[in-house]
Write a structure and sequence with these properties.
The protein has 189 residues and is an alpha/beta fold. It is 21% helix and 30% strand. The chain has helices at residues 25-28, 38-43, 52-58, 93-102, 114-122, 174-177, and strands at 5-12, 16-18, 45-51, 70-74, 86-88, 107-112, 128-134, 142-143, 154-161, 167-173. The strands form 2 sheets. An 8-stranded mixed beta sheet has the order 5-4-3-6-1-7-10-9. Strands 2-8 form a two-stranded antiparallel sheet. The model has no long low-confidence stretch (mean pLDDT 90).
Amino acid sequence: MTRKVILYIATTIDGFIARENGKIDWLVENETNEDYGYNEFDESIDTVFMGRHTYEQVLTFGEFPYKGKEVFVVTTKKGGKSEDVTFISPTEVHDKVTELKKLEGKNIFLVGGGSLNALFLNENLIDEYWIFQKPILLGSGIPLFQGNVADTPLSLIDSKIYPSGFVFLKFVNDKKRLGQNPPLNRKSR
Protein backbone atom coordinates (compact mmCIF):
# COMPACT_ATOMS: atom_id res chain seq x y z
CA MET A 1 0.00 0.00 0.00
CA THR A 2 1.30 3.43 -0.92
CA ARG A 3 1.57 5.80 2.00
CA LYS A 4 -0.65 8.87 1.80
CA VAL A 5 -0.30 12.33 3.30
CA ILE A 6 -3.62 13.17 4.95
CA LEU A 7 -4.60 16.59 6.24
CA TYR A 8 -7.02 15.72 9.09
CA ILE A 9 -8.24 18.98 10.58
CA ALA A 10 -11.19 20.91 12.01
CA THR A 11 -12.23 24.30 10.70
CA THR A 12 -14.94 26.83 11.26
CA ILE A 13 -17.51 27.42 8.53
CA ASP A 14 -15.54 30.53 7.56
CA GLY A 15 -12.34 28.50 7.15
CA PHE A 16 -10.36 29.18 10.32
CA ILE A 17 -8.42 26.56 12.27
CA ALA A 18 -7.73 28.77 15.29
CA ARG A 19 -8.35 32.22 16.65
CA GLU A 20 -5.80 34.93 15.78
CA ASN A 21 -4.02 34.18 19.08
CA GLY A 22 -3.83 30.46 18.22
CA LYS A 23 -6.53 29.40 20.69
CA ILE A 24 -8.87 26.56 19.72
CA ASP A 25 -11.39 27.00 22.54
CA TRP A 26 -14.20 27.21 19.93
CA LEU A 27 -13.39 23.63 18.92
CA VAL A 28 -14.18 22.09 22.31
CA GLU A 29 -17.16 24.26 23.30
CA ASN A 30 -20.35 22.19 23.66
CA GLU A 31 -18.44 19.10 22.59
CA THR A 32 -19.82 15.58 22.77
CA ASN A 33 -17.94 12.32 23.32
CA GLU A 34 -17.86 11.69 19.56
CA ASP A 35 -14.33 10.92 18.33
CA TYR A 36 -15.12 11.72 14.66
CA GLY A 37 -13.21 8.65 13.55
CA TYR A 38 -9.99 9.92 15.12
CA ASN A 39 -9.08 6.69 16.95
CA GLU A 40 -9.33 4.69 13.73
CA PHE A 41 -7.42 7.41 11.87
CA ASP A 42 -4.71 7.43 14.55
CA GLU A 43 -4.22 3.67 14.05
CA SER A 44 -3.68 4.28 10.31
CA ILE A 45 -0.73 6.69 10.74
CA ASP A 46 2.84 6.35 11.97
CA THR A 47 4.30 9.70 10.93
CA VAL A 48 3.24 13.24 11.86
CA PHE A 49 4.14 16.69 10.50
CA MET A 50 3.24 19.90 12.32
CA GLY A 51 4.38 23.50 12.43
CA ARG A 52 6.28 25.00 15.34
CA HIS A 53 3.32 26.98 16.72
CA THR A 54 1.10 23.91 16.58
CA TYR A 55 3.80 21.90 18.34
CA GLU A 56 4.08 24.51 21.10
CA GLN A 57 0.30 24.39 21.59
CA VAL A 58 0.30 20.57 21.63
CA LEU A 59 2.82 20.70 24.47
CA THR A 60 0.21 22.51 26.62
CA PHE A 61 -2.22 19.57 26.33
CA GLY A 62 -0.37 17.44 28.89
CA GLU A 63 1.07 14.12 27.72
CA PHE A 64 2.49 14.27 24.19
CA PRO A 65 -0.22 12.66 22.03
CA TYR A 66 2.05 11.28 19.30
CA LYS A 67 4.42 9.09 21.34
CA GLY A 68 5.52 6.06 19.35
CA LYS A 69 5.13 7.89 16.04
CA GLU A 70 7.81 9.60 13.97
CA VAL A 71 7.11 13.32 14.43
CA PHE A 72 8.56 16.19 12.40
CA VAL A 73 8.19 19.80 13.52
CA VAL A 74 8.70 22.21 10.64
CA THR A 75 10.24 25.47 11.76
CA THR A 76 12.41 28.34 10.58
CA LYS A 77 13.84 28.70 14.11
CA LYS A 78 17.24 27.22 14.73
CA GLY A 79 17.65 24.73 17.49
CA GLY A 80 15.17 22.97 19.66
CA LYS A 81 15.56 19.56 21.23
CA SER A 82 13.08 16.92 22.11
CA GLU A 83 13.17 13.15 22.40
CA ASP A 84 9.71 13.06 20.82
CA VAL A 85 10.28 15.07 17.63
CA THR A 86 12.74 15.92 14.88
CA PHE A 87 12.96 19.59 13.89
CA ILE A 88 13.31 20.29 10.16
CA SER A 89 13.24 23.44 8.04
CA PRO A 90 10.55 24.20 5.47
CA THR A 91 13.12 23.67 2.69
CA GLU A 92 13.53 20.04 3.82
CA VAL A 93 9.83 19.14 3.73
CA HIS A 94 9.45 18.08 0.09
CA ASP A 95 12.48 15.78 0.11
CA LYS A 96 11.59 14.32 3.53
CA VAL A 97 8.00 13.50 2.52
CA THR A 98 9.16 12.06 -0.81
CA GLU A 99 11.68 9.88 1.04
CA LEU A 100 9.11 8.71 3.61
CA LYS A 101 6.56 7.81 0.94
CA LYS A 102 9.10 5.43 -0.63
CA LEU A 103 9.44 3.52 2.65
CA GLU A 104 7.09 0.90 4.05
CA GLY A 105 4.78 2.28 6.65
CA LYS A 106 1.42 3.70 7.53
CA ASN A 107 -0.05 7.00 6.36
CA ILE A 108 1.38 10.42 7.19
CA PHE A 109 -0.67 12.89 9.27
CA LEU A 110 -0.41 16.58 8.42
CA VAL A 111 -1.60 18.28 11.64
CA GLY A 112 -1.12 21.90 10.52
CA GLY A 113 -1.08 24.87 11.09
CA GLY A 114 -2.09 27.18 8.31
CA SER A 115 1.37 28.02 6.98
CA LEU A 116 2.48 24.39 6.93
CA ASN A 117 -0.79 23.36 5.25
CA ALA A 118 -0.09 25.94 2.52
CA LEU A 119 3.48 24.69 2.11
CA PHE A 120 2.30 21.08 1.70
CA LEU A 121 -0.42 22.19 -0.73
CA ASN A 122 1.97 24.26 -2.83
CA GLU A 123 4.45 21.38 -2.93
CA ASN A 124 1.58 19.07 -4.06
CA LEU A 125 2.21 16.73 -1.12
CA ILE A 126 -1.33 16.28 0.23
CA ASP A 127 -3.13 13.20 -1.05
CA GLU A 128 -6.34 13.50 0.97
CA TYR A 129 -8.07 16.30 2.83
CA TRP A 130 -10.22 15.21 5.80
CA ILE A 131 -11.98 18.41 6.81
CA PHE A 132 -14.30 18.59 9.81
CA GLN A 133 -16.33 21.80 9.73
CA LYS A 134 -17.85 22.99 12.99
CA PRO A 135 -20.97 25.12 12.63
CA ILE A 136 -19.46 28.30 14.04
CA LEU A 137 -18.24 31.56 12.51
CA LEU A 138 -15.24 33.36 14.02
CA GLY A 139 -14.94 36.24 11.57
CA SER A 140 -11.15 36.19 11.84
CA GLY A 141 -8.38 33.84 12.84
CA ILE A 142 -5.72 31.58 11.39
CA PRO A 143 -6.93 30.28 8.03
CA LEU A 144 -6.77 26.65 6.95
CA PHE A 145 -4.21 27.69 4.32
CA GLN A 146 -2.21 30.75 5.31
CA GLY A 147 -0.67 32.82 2.53
CA ASN A 148 -0.79 32.29 -1.21
CA VAL A 149 -1.84 28.86 -2.40
CA ALA A 150 -2.01 27.26 -5.82
CA ASP A 151 -5.25 26.27 -7.51
CA THR A 152 -5.75 22.63 -6.57
CA PRO A 153 -8.58 20.59 -8.06
CA LEU A 154 -10.18 18.23 -5.53
CA SER A 155 -12.90 15.59 -5.68
CA LEU A 156 -15.29 14.96 -2.80
CA ILE A 157 -15.27 11.22 -2.10
CA ASP A 158 -17.05 11.03 1.25
CA SER A 159 -19.09 13.14 3.64
CA LYS A 160 -20.95 12.72 6.90
CA ILE A 161 -23.05 14.91 9.18
CA TYR A 162 -22.54 14.26 12.90
CA PRO A 163 -25.24 14.82 15.57
CA SER A 164 -23.05 17.59 17.03
CA GLY A 165 -23.41 19.54 13.77
CA PHE A 166 -19.89 18.85 12.53
CA VAL A 167 -19.73 18.06 8.83
CA PHE A 168 -16.98 15.73 7.59
CA LEU A 169 -15.76 16.28 4.03
CA LYS A 170 -13.18 13.96 2.50
CA PHE A 171 -11.46 15.13 -0.66
CA VAL A 172 -8.75 13.64 -2.85
CA ASN A 173 -6.22 15.66 -4.78
CA ASP A 174 -7.27 15.20 -8.44
CA LYS A 175 -3.79 15.81 -9.83
CA LYS A 176 -2.33 13.06 -7.67
CA ARG A 177 -5.30 10.75 -8.32
CA LEU A 178 -4.79 11.19 -12.06
CA GLY A 179 -1.04 10.57 -11.78
CA GLN A 180 -0.04 14.20 -12.29
CA ASN A 181 2.34 14.80 -9.43
CA PRO A 182 4.39 17.94 -10.06
CA PRO A 183 4.61 20.59 -7.34
CA LEU A 184 1.82 23.08 -7.93
CA ASN A 185 3.58 26.32 -7.05
CA ARG A 186 7.17 25.38 -6.38
CA LYS A 187 9.38 28.23 -5.26
CA SER A 188 13.09 27.85 -5.78
CA ARG A 189 14.73 26.35 -2.77
